[in-house]
Design goal:
The chain is mostly helical. It has a single domain, classed as Ferritin, core subunit, four-helix bundle (Ferritin). Helix content is 80%, strand content 0%. The longest helix is centred in the C-terminal third of the chain and has 35 residues.
């Protein structure tokens, strides 16, 4: 009988010991952030993807500005170039808040969208509103990709407890939405009608 009791006591001690060790394996920190989780790693990977996208977009926009026919569209591209640089700076803040190095990973989607924009410039005549209509189409495809990306990353950040990061991503998201609206107004107000008459 004494042996059985001793065995139960030893078993109980082992159970208690394993319970104390369990919290060390948790992927959540005291703040609730999931730094070591697969979801967090995926989040960082997608931040690197959009960082690459923004860095390449800021180089492509001046070419689109130069190709634009109307002064209004050229001005819109110039403004968006400045805003895109701000988005890059914001992403670098996000990386810093997450204690990550700001690094870019090739974004196949943005590469394809920018190639399409180049194709539109090559396939349309300089000084035409048809070209402007095409440039707006290309730019809005870029905007919709960015809106989808920033919207999703903002929600990811919220779910992991990165409220400061979510706020920064939300600011960029609202800016992307405003740019999309501005491009639509440019298109509807005069570009499409002029293009249809050429």
């Amino acid at each position: 009988m004494a042996t059985t009791t001793k065995s139960k006591t030893t078993s109980s001690a082992k159970t208690t010991g394993s319970t104390k060790a369990a919290p060390k394996k948790s992927s959540k920190s005291a703040s609730g952030k999931m730094e070591d989780s697969e979801f967090h790693e995926f989040f960082i990977d997608e931040l690197k993807d959009i960082y690459w996208a923004e860095k390449h977009l800021v180089k492509a926009l001046p070419k689109m500005q130069k190709a634009a026919t109307s002064p209004e569209l050229a001005a819109a591209f110039e403004k968006h170039t400045q805003e895109t640089q701000t988005h890059i700076d914001t992403l670098e803040q996000v990386f810093a808040l997450l204690d990550e190095k700001a690094s870019a990973k090739k974004c196949d989607a943005m590469e394809g969208l920018l190639e399409e924009a180049n194709g539109i410039i090559e396939d349309t005549d300089s000084g035409t509103m048809v070209r402007d209509a095409g440039l707006i189409l290309a730019a809005q495809k870029v905007e919709h990709y960015e809106i989808a990306t920033y919207g999703t990353l903002k929600v990811f950040a919220e779910n992991m407890g990165h409220t400061d990061v979510a706020e920064l991503l939300g600011q960029t998201l609202e800016n992307e939405k405003a740019t999309d609206v501005a491009l639509t107004e440019c298109s509807v107000n005069f570009v499409n009608q002029a293009a249809a008459q050429e």
